[in-house]
Give the backbone structure.
Amino acid sequence: MRPEEEGMVASVGCAQTGADFAVQSGRGESSFDPGCREVHAIVLAGVHSWGHGVLESLICRPLLPILNRPLISHVLGWLRAGGIDAVTTCANSDTAAIRGALGASGDAEPAITYYEDVMPRGPAGCIKDSAAGSQADAFVVVEGAVIPEINLTSLIDAHLESEAALTLVVSSTRTKPDVRHDPGEPMGIYVFSPDSLAGVSPIGYQDIKEGLIPQLHRRGRRVLTYSVPTGSVVRVTGAASYLAANRWALRRLTRSDAARAGYRRVGESWLHETAMVDPTVRLAGPVFVGPESIVQSKSMLTGPTTIGARCIIERDAVVSRSALWNGVRVGAGAVLDDCIVADNGLVGPGRVRRHTVCHAPNGLGRRLLGRLNPSIGGRQRVALAEG
């Protein structure tokens, strides 16, 4: 694993207690008191290539829309629930895009400052650079393309009590979080002790798995895993897991009693107050319809499906298990199933698209289609599979 990711730095405030976060996360209580320790968080927000695919040519992974909000905003929300009060981002050439997206979505709270790192340093190098000059007792590191549902305070507490140099969050079949030496599937969340970064070179690309962890082992430092139940962290590693994450977030919203500002709930669906949905439209399962979108008569929306802002679904169209971004138009009688349609994408009248990525380059009405199969007949096709 060599993710070319840069980072975002934040400090944990002193107001949160383990009990406070347990109420929000449902993951249990912790005795850790942030008032006794200073903890900083680093969110790796750079870009890692998925290979030759349509999605990576459209947008950097942390900005993929999940429930019509940037993926990275869900990471910030988790940190905010853990008491984050300041953030500094570093994302190479994606810095401007991330700044604009977070500002437009209203997710630039808590206050975020931005730093563009011209020379990619890799995740370990970014952590070292971001931690320079800090007096923190620990550093929480999170990839910008995950949605955590674990108790942040309990994780910090477990790391500090273990006196490990590094704690890695891994997925397991255990029903309760636990610290173990046993390997598991990494979830893109770490806690570092400050002295664990001493051996990271101040120059060049520096990796965590291939560089820092072996170095810690050679130094005789403890590297532990913090096991969490499967599903506690949702990761986006490619087109298939992106769709899965979008569906997961929509189902989670539907199961909750929380209100969503600007939206009204109709059965299992969430419709923006400015959206126009014809009374003859059939809504089956969880559906999310964004601002100023129009769904015309006798169409059918089958969930889990998300529809962005300013979309038009023409009459008799069927959209099922799909994610439509902003400005999408689906023609009359068209059928979409298990699809991603990017900003300003167009699906013509009567067309049938299954397992397809569709987008309109440069905002034009022309489409590039990525079929979720191997290449056939020389046409551009994209496998909707992991990484």
Notes: Residues 1-35, 363-387 have pLDDT under 50 and may be disordered.
